[in-house]
Specification:
The structure is a single chain. By secondary structure, the chain is α/β, with parallel strands linked by helices. The protein has three domains: 6-174, Rossmann fold, CATH 3.40.50.970; 190-349, 3-Layer(aba) Sandwich (Rossmann fold); 359-549, Thiamin diphosphate (ThDP)-binding fold, Pyr/PP domains (Rossmann fold). Helix content is 36%, strand content 15%. The chain has 22 helices and 18 strands. A six-stranded parallel β-sheet has the order 2-1-3-4-6-5, with helices on both faces. Strands 9-8-7-10-11-12 form a six-stranded parallel β-sheet, with helices on both faces. The radius of gyration is 25 Å and the shape is globular.
Length: 574
Amino acid sequence: MAKLDAGQLLARTLVEAGVHDVFALHGGHLDAFLQGCTQEGIRLIDVRHEATAGHAAEGYARTTGRIGVCTVTAGPGFTNAYTAIADAYLDSIPVLFITSSPPLRETEWNSLQGGFDQVAAALPVTKWAHRVTNGERLPDLVSLAMRKAFSGRPGPVLLDVPIDVMFRPIDERAITRPTVFAVNRPAPAPADVARLVELLQGAERPALVLGGGTLFPPCAEEVRRFADATNIPVFTTGKAHGMLPPDHASNFGGMGALGLASAMGMAPDLVILLGARQGMYTGGRGTATIPAGAKIVQVDIEPAEIGRIRPVDLPIAAGCQELLRALLAEPKSLPDFAGWRTKVRELLPVMQAAFASLPAKAESGRIHPFHALKSVFDAIGPEAIITSDGGESGVWAGQFFRTGVPGGVLTNGYLGTLGCGTGFAIGAQVAHPGRRVVQIAGDGAFGFHLQELDTMVRHNLPIVTVVANNTIWGMSTHGQEGIWGAGQTVAATLRDTDYDRVAVAFGGYGERVKNFEEVAPAVQRSLDANLAAVVNLEIAPDVVHPLMVQMMAPPADPTDIVIPYYENIPVFAD
């Protein structure tokens, strides 16, 4: 009779924790676990590169509020996944990474795929990393890993199970039991809730900014109820799109709309950061997005995060869902901001009016990126899940983000990872088989993992990828030219590749689009094909997004040093 080994015990424990899908790339070190997944009914989604497996687990977690699970083999399997681990760490995404390594008994033997400490390497980019030395302890260690992933600020955790531990039969009498997989989030202090209500009652122009803290656990229902009760304008940073239905009257989309309101003389006087960290996605130290005169309330599960860049008027260390529930407990105390919301709504057409008047074709003869991506989103509709991967292409696409899924717009995060969108899309499609998933990618970013078209075809994932093909690394080219002048580019050009034909070669569907009028029909045909598909859009390389111009603008003091993407360095006179 076959005996239970650690690999099957690990799979069995994951099932007990509610895990049904694991993203993987095969390696012999993992075989006992992979066989165990099959025996225990876990679906394995095997990909073509370990980074994609990690990003797919991120996409799964971001669109479900549950933990994503990724397993990769020793040595280069681990190092290939390292980018995804760091990406999840910086973006606070709960992912369990399961790795393996050479046998414990062969430590310091110069063994295959050994020679460095994977756990030590993982520690700086995980909340917790641990090497399992006894397979019997996997149940309590997995439950500990789950609690680590969700307690406080969420994030990735790693369990390394050496191959000799993974394959070794286990005495079932010695197996530990899981303890607790889930943890409750702390509620706000009643005095803080009362003070927040006072600030709302005294405000005339409040704004609610949602961040990634609203995803774990998802609090879309509470956000909607609060917006219905107050009619407060709601804005979202990258991870929180979809917390309100796309057509909700209080849904104003991304932070660009908040910046526009401030620029148009309608700056908010109260900004509530709900699970949104201060930093690049909220305007940094600048006051263009969150004005200097506004009172700031910051709600975060991590107390040390509150007031990171700017002081706040009311710090609240609590879970976002718990804070909203406390506010909604006495709805009669909440004021109505319908009039203010109407004024902000009137500003929105200004955001797209300047671009809409431009010709559909640029001087190069290729399609203007604004018109191309507007047509794409018009064809997709509001209920799809969107992944956006790339530099400048993502900025153009950001004007049109909308989704009916909490966390259903997945973009490059704080690590600025290129190539993550394909994995995000795979994870989101596995998590939501009944929804369409559309990836918007620059041609540079898509080239990182276009082999994953094979993964999509093998696993019947009908993801549509729209490639914004401008034959350059757009942000790099336009950034270099902004500083050194026209034509002064280095290592920033690409071939005009037939990415659509690559999709067909992998068994999917593909179209190349040269004219603006054909964009929407091509997207619709790709959706109708119900296959992994690529729409290859000929985008103009000569069009620069205004944000890029702003990022590379000459400093107010000509002696200052221009630093791409960051604050310029002031040079002080002696």
